[in-house]
Design brief:
Helix content: 25-40%
Number of strands: 18
Order of helices and strands: HEHEHHHEHEHHHEEEHEEEEEHEHEEEEE
Largest sheet: 8 strands, antiparallel
Radius of gyration: 19 Å
Number of helices: 12
Structural class: alpha+beta
Shape: globular
């Protein structure tokens, strides 16, 4: 891949880094070449960069060997950093998520708890952010897919035509902005919630001035979704998600019942205990609906297990649990967990905007 070109796009088009700004760049050492190129283009904009590197081994050892009360303590240096940075570019930190399988869930939950004050401050200061995935052979093996297919699909999705995707997304945005109530159905799903008064955004890969003014201060790469924060207490019904991955393990057949916005019952066909443990050791409104998203990226056409691409599959939707204050919601949590759903039918105030995964507007 031409990482130099990708880095230039991230810095100049996605983040629109300006002279004099300070940008925090983080990611795994397995993608060091991309991190280096990002840092170079930040400097070429006459801006400053701070690089925060990670390795799988370091992350695992800290989680296993550090006193739990210290794991729960917010990082003083990072709290200072979030007060001075103008933007952050976060590339995937895990080369092989399976290395965390031996880490007790309560320790992962403790580390997430430590990050809540930083998340609050970043939202409060409206610090721009770009989060980016990175395909690896280890992830492909974990998902049971061909690495070359995974690699090529990912990078095609990153370099897709964002202008064309934006035009498609605007039609969906208009439907949601002018609507009150959403209904999602499949043969195993019947879920209803309100979006009345909530802002609706397009993740099109670029943080524009208009986005910043409306409170949309971040994006993902690959980009490609319309999303909003539903009225939390309004969600009622049942939702079925084919699969999710956590710590390198597949959780299959997630059947969740929502009442007044909260997951009150969940059954899984495979690894249900892992799903429940992840929720149990998260903090805040971890079991509250946090997001409704609709995938738009034409280069992502099938489920792999990698949530950063699965949630962008054109014609899919996803529901997230947990944190949503960064895009117009009121739910605070240490968790934000996206759960994709394939081939849904979506209605807004009784008008069908998607039928069995095909757009009708």
């Amino acid at each position: 891949m031409d990482f130099d070109s990708i880095a230039e796009t991230i810095v100049k088009k996605c983040m629109r880094v300006r002279a004099g700004e300070t940008i925090l760049v983080s990611g795994g050492l397995f993608c060091l070449e991309l991190l280096e190129d990002i840092a170079v283009f930040v400097a070429r904009q006459r801006a400053y960069n701070l690089i925060l590197p990670y390795t799988d081994r370091m992350q695992k050892r800290i989680l296993l060997e550090v006193d739990r009360d210290f794991l729960e303590s917010p990082s003083k240096p990072l709290l200072e950093l979030v007060n001075i940075i103008d933007g952050r570019i976060a590339v995937d930190t895990m080369q092989d998520p399976r290395v965390l399988q031996s880490v007790p869930e309560e320790r992962i939950g403790a580390q997430r708890q430590a990050g809540r004050p930083m998340t609050h401050r970043l939202i409060e200061r409206k610090v721009r952010w770009t989060g980016m995935g990175f395909p690896t052979k280890e992830k492909a093996e974990m998902f049971g897919i061909d690495y070359e297919d995974f690699h090529d699909m990912f990078w095609r999705a990153v370099m897709t035509d964002y202008e064309k995707m934006h035009e498609k997304g605007k039609k969906i945005v208009d439907e949601l902005r002018n609507g009150l109530n959403v209904r999602i159905t499949t043969n195993k799903t019947d879920l209803r919630f309100s979006v009345d008064g909530r802002p609706v955004y397009i993740d099109d890969g670029i943080i524009s001035e208009e986005d910043i003014q409306s409170g949309d201060i971040g994006n993902n790469l690959p980009a490609g979704e319309v999303f909003c924060a539903p009225i939390e207490h309004s969600c009622e019904g049942r939702a079925f998600f084919e699969a999710a991955f956590y710590k390198g393990k597949k959780i299959a057949g997630i059947d969740a019942v929502f009442k007044k916005g909260k997951v009150v019952e969940v059954c899984c066909e495979e690894n249900g205990r892992l799903f429940k443990e992840a929720l149990a050791h998260a903090h805040g409104g971890k079991d509250i609906i946090g997001e409704f998203g609709i995938g738009l990226n034409p280069e992502v056409k099938k489920v792999t297990g990698y949530v950063l691409t699965d949630e962008k599959i054109i014609g899919s939707i996803h529901i997230a649990l947990g944190e949503n204050r960064g895009f117009g919601g009121e739910n605070e949590s240490s968790l934000h967990w996206d759960l994709p759903m394939m081939h849904p039918t979506v209605e807004v105030d009784g008008r069908t905007i998607m039928e069995d995964g095909r757009f009708t507007v």
